Amino acid sequence: MSNKKEASAQGAVQMKKPDETTARYEFSDQVGHLLRRAYQRHTALFQQSIPDSKLTVGQFVVLCALRDHAHSSIIDLVKLTVIDQSTIRGVVDRLKSRGLIKLDTDPDDRRKVIASLNPAGLRMVEEMEPFARTITEETFGTLNEAERVALLYLLRKMIGSEPNPGHINGQG
After folding, report:
1. Which one, 12, 38, 105, 109, has the greatest CB density within 10 A?
2. How high is the mean pLDDT of the chain?
């Protein structure tokens, strides 16, 4: 085997081939399916609990990101929120049309759009934050404190980010 093929094989994840003794693949037991179901539950709780029926989870996340990182470009918002660029543009447009954010051009680069909260946007975040905390609690459901800490730790580990001690208790 050539060095290139060996390096490639060493860096690859070792996958077991199924055999007759391997249990049947049950999609409903797979991590992706369970994560999707948990997110769907969280989104449903958000839509049921948030008093502003026009506010979506994505819009709230963008408002929070702008509160924490004022004057962010669209690219910055994509990185902060992990919402893809085509979706973030629609979210930003809807927030702008509601008068919750303003858009300006970067004085150093006229091609770059900079978003920031309007006073109404800041009020919206402040008014919705207690509801968002309750939604987080409801999303955790019957998990005890140790299970909540473990879940957040494991999710952060799965996505490759270091746990932030200030956010490990579910406040992030």
Report:
1. 38
2. 87
